[in-house]
Amino acid sequence: MIPGTEELLLAAARNNAEWCDAVVRGHGPAGAFAPGVWTSAHRTPPLYPDAVSLAPGAPAAGLVAAIDTDGPGCSVKDSFADLDLAAHGFEVLFEAQWIHRPAGAPQATGSRLEWSEVTTPGELEAWEAAWDGEESTGLFHPALLGADSAFLAGRADGRIVAGAVANRGRDAVVGLSNLFAHDDADTDAAWTGALTAIAARWPDLPVIGYEAGDDLDAAVRAGFTPLGPLRVWLHTA
What we know:
The protein is about 25% helix and about 30% strand. By secondary structure, it is an alpha+beta fold. The protein has 2 domains: about 100 residues; about 100 residues, Aminopeptidase, CATH 3.40.630.30. Helix 2 links the parallel strand 3 and strand 4.
């Protein structure tokens, strides 16, 4: 266990909930932060949870009561893999590992990609289309640009072929999510490029996130250390 693991796990869960809350605010009422949990009383956009536990031992019954389980797709991010939601009609959708990397840029790899931050609504649409692999659906709204978040784009010949999202949290960490690589970009180059861009903007802040499978292996190659498990539950009853 690396020093400060418990604090990093708490910061990672909070940072992720803050990002979920920011995305949700672009589609309707904001979520609510309460002791141990973040919840949204209204169904969240696709791929985003309706609740995130912020500390071990979050009250499962109270969490479920605060979200809308009637519509399809309701999900809960069990940040410490310690909730039993089966009795409430949920099944485990997937498991992953929280990850942490100390502040600082990785060693350069000589990638041909040019990295920059998305700054306009038009660029954001292009970024989302590249991330989605087909088209922009309006999931990410322009109010997310700048301030404490950054959409990072890796371009080859002017075309976005890699990218990631970074968001600075209340607890002085940077969350890294939604990393992708297509065509001329390999995954390792995408991790290196995104981390270099993050270090340029937030040079003194550690980076956190979560990954599973091959993506977790790539994160470890980029200098991340697994911190602990999380689960995502999907309401299926």
